[in-house]
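Contributing new records

If you add data, match the layout below exactly. Sequence lines come first and carry their own label; structure lines follow with theirs. Keep one chain per record. Anything else will be rejected by the validation script.
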Amino acid sequence: MSTELERAIGRVVEGTRHWSPARWLPHADTMHGLVQALADIAADAEGRERRPVPRLPNDMSLPDQLQVVGVDLIELEPLDSSQVKAADEAIAAARSDLF
């Protein structure tokens, strides 16, 4: 599972890493929402309280933020089936808006 999740996150990271600020304008909220969703899944998996992920001042940092949160989530595996499903759905929804 980690390979699948890692690949899915990697595709979003690599597909957006080169975006200009103008390209981020209509999509930054979607990417930040994905980062928050994965952070929430990680918090649930660890039994921690959910916390808001800070919105960085430069939207061009969003791929890096996704990569960091994604690695944190992958390191928590094995996740239960509901967490895997939630991560897959969040990534799929974000991909449909981003690309």
